[in-house]
Amino acid sequence: MTSLALTHARFQLLETARIPIALFGSAFFPAAAMLAFVVPFVGGNPEYATAATASMITFSVMSTNLFQYGVGVAEDRAQPWDPYVRTLPAGAAPRFAGRILAGLALMFVSLIPVVLIAAFLTEATLTAPAFLVTAGTVVAIAVPFILMGLAIGYSMPQKAAIVVAQLLFFPLAFLGGLMTGPGMAPGFVENLAPYLPTGGAVRLMWAAVGDFPYDVSSITALAGWTIVLGWAAVWAYRRDEGRRFS
């Protein structure tokens, strides 16, 4: 299982490395937002710069996983290699594990520009223990977005998956409060954000990097979203399996 999962992860990474622009796109928007908004406006304030960097990291986690899994899985399903691999006796678990490992590796690579900009162009600060907590939080908040991407990728054809990912991308970022710091969003966003996956994720990140208190209601909502999206991903996979292999 472990060896097969690593083989699938290596295959996914090699496939992505052959088209570097795919990785560049995931890293570009959060890095551009850091340069356009965070560095000039709050870069000199350690507290605001650290919170804004956490927001941009959440933004990158969402966009990377939404497009990587949503669009990537839909593209794979359109290739003749995909149905062949799914007929192999190893089952779906190694492929899922390998895809998730490769996705996490690519996600952390896409975060490097944001972290470097925060480190060298702003006053954002983080202690070593807080850095480790933040790294673990990044992995935790990636889970619902991975599941969301898988649900889209296994339930829609390629062209529809691209459109749905694009339609979800900006509203989830804005309504989740990723465009502003803690408590700085418009009133209706502040009221709605804790109950959206993006809002719950960024609140966990703010708590990991600073003094923002852990919000039980947003954590509960994020856990609920994870369960719902996990069910949707499994349902979409089984539906696709039944349609293509029955």
From TrEMBL:
- Keywords of the record: Antibiotic resistance, Membrane, Transmembrane, Transmembrane helix
Please state where this protein is localized.
Membrane
The record's GO molecular-function terms, alphabetically, read: ABC-type transporter activity
The principal location of this protein is membrane
Q: How does it sit in the membrane?
A: Multi-pass membrane protein
Q: Does the keyword Transport apply?
A: no
Question: Pfam families per the record?
Answer: ABC2_membrane (PF01061)
Tell me the protein's name.
ABC-2 type transport system permease protein
Q: Which InterPro entries match?
A: ABC2_TM, ABC_2_transport, Nod_factor_ABC_transporter
Question: What PANTHER family does the database record attribute to this sequence?
Answer: NODULATION PROTEIN J
Where the record annotates domain ABC-2 type transporter transmembrane, the positions are 10-192
- Asked whether the UniProt record includes Membrane among its keywords, one would answer yes
Transmembrane stretches in the record are 21-42, 48-67, 100-122, 128-153, 160-179, 216-237
User: GO cellular component terms?
Assistant: ATP-binding cassette (ABC) transporter complex
Q: Which organism is it from?
A: Paractinoplanes brasiliensis
> What's a single GO BP term from this record?
response to antibiotic
